[in-house]
From TrEMBL:
It is an enzyme of class 2 (transferase). It catalyses: D-fructose 6-phosphate + L-glutamine = D-glucosamine 6-phosphate + L-glutamate. Residues 45-186, 217-354 form the SIS domain. Catalyzes the first step in hexosamine metabolism, converting fructose-6P into glucosamine-6P using glutamine as a nitrogen source. The chain holds residues 243 to 606 of 606 of the full protein. Its EC number is 2.6.1.16. It is found in: Cytoplasm. Homodimer. The keyword Repeat applies. Keywords: Aminotransferase, Cytoplasm, Glutamine amidotransferase, Repeat, Transferase. The lineage of its organism: Bacteria, Bacillati, Actinomycetota, Actinomycetes, Kitasatosporales. The active site is at K359 (for fru-6p isomerization activity). This is Glutamine--fructose-6-phosphate aminotransferase [isomerizing]. It comes from the Bacteria. It comes from Streptomyces stramineus.
């Protein structure tokens, strides 16, 4: 990829459209069909090390932190290792207990974010094993970690991250599969996940081909002063990232909540002027999510659903292709990148360089 705009009006638009190729690159040469697993050359973690991991702690900032939240769920689901993600800055200022059986993973597009780098250095000083999940080859975080995965998204210029986020989540899928296959993930499940990963580039292209519909929807919601994003379990970090994307580029206030928490406060905000974007995958929580849509509808809230089938209670549904349940979060955020882009465009925002933000924050 070059820095050429290639006919796109912004880098954000260009980078959104590069995602099918970027994911293809993240998968290339890594899948091992013989053992239904993946090879991650730079990981520096042999099977014995992998099996000795008792917990996984993922650290990152902004979009990378959200990618880490999805990654933590994938690792728990596929490898059955307790995992969670935390903002790197919070972690480093709370004198964390550093545990020798925990695998720490630093996630960063630039590999230069100061808070993440400082967390890595503190962990190393205390003798922890730290891996990097990084885009920029040879960056500070890539150099200071014990090993890791390059996400191979290619250069990302727009301040708000799109294709790198997607490739981070795909890379977490690879890592979760790898860790899972050193433990109890069956060959059949390994095969199932590999088949799902291979489908991603084509499914991403399918979502992007729907762009005109999403542009129209952005027109419908651009008058909102504030928007709510909801999701449950796998859908919750997707909602958080979509909400961040919208506020970064359009400056519309947005907040993300687990759908299950609506009744504990945010329902009070629901009215026609506060639309809700709901992540509604066809998984075992479908009925629970539908119930949340009903609660919102009963309070005259407008709803835009991102789902695998049209949602009756929603005013609009963006239908995305179904993958394996564990990999659905990779796809469900993509139409919402376009929604953020078209909303910002309709409002005349400086899309590639939103006010007050920097691509990488290398100071404290
Ligand atoms: C900045 C950018 C965000 C990014 C975050 C982490 O705040 O504006 O888009 O997610 O830094 O950056 P990193 O390079 O570590 O992924």
């Amino acid at each position: 990829e070059s820095y050429d705009m290639g006919g796109h009006d912004t880098y954000m638009h260009k980078e959104i459209h590069e995602q099918a190729d970027a994911v293809d690159r993240a998968l290339r040469g890594r899948i091992d069909d013989r053992f239904s697993t993946v090879h991650l050359g730079g990981l520096n973690l042999d099977a014995r090390d992998a099996r000795a991991v008792r917990r996984v702690k993922i650290l990152g900032c902004g979009t990378s932190y959200h990618a880490g939240q999805i990654g933590a769920q994938m690792i728990e689901e596929l490898a059955r290792i307790p995992a969670d993600a935390e903002p790197a800055s919070e972690f480093r200022y709370r004198n964390p207990v550093v545990d020798p059986d925990t695998l720490y993973i630093a996630v960063s597009q630039s590999g230069e974010t100061y808070d993440v780098l400082a967390a890595v250095q503190e962990l190393k000083r205390k003798g922890a094993r730290v891996l990097g999940l990084v885009n920029v080859v040879g960056s500070a975080i890539a150099r200071e970690t014990d090993g890791g995965i390059y996400v191979h998204a290619g250069p990302e210029v727009c301040v708000v991250s799109t294709k790198c986020f997607t490739n981070m989540v795909v890379s977490f899928g690879l890592l979760a599969l790898h860790l899972g296959r050193t433990r109890d993930l069956s060959v059949a499940d390994g095969k199932r996940i590999i088949a799902g990963l291979r489908k991603l580039p084509e499914q991403i292209a399918e979502i992007l081909a729907n762009e005109a519909e999403i542009e129209k929807l952005a027109g419908e919601y651009a008058d909102a002063k504030s928007m709510m994003f909801i999701g449950r379990v796998r859908g919750y970090p997707v909602a958080r990232e979509a909400s961040l994307k919208l506020k970064e580029v359009s400056y519309i206030h947005a907040e993300a909540y687990p759908a299950s928490e609506l009744k504990h406060g945010p329902l009070a905000l629901i009215e026609p002027a506060m639309p809700t974007v709901a992540i509604v995958p066809d998984d075992d929580l479908l009925e629970k999510n539908r119930a949340a849509l009903e609660e919102i509808k009963a309070r005259s809230g407008r709803i835009l659903a991102v789902a695998h089938q049209v949602q009756e209670k929603a005013d609009h549904t963006i239908v995305v292709p179904k993958n394996e349940d564990e990999l659905d979060p990779i796809l469900m955020g993509i139409p919402l990148q376009l929604l953020a882009y078209y909303t910002a465009k309709a409002m005349g925002r400086d899309i590639d360089k939103p006010r007050n933000l920097a691509k990488s924050v290398t100071v404290e």
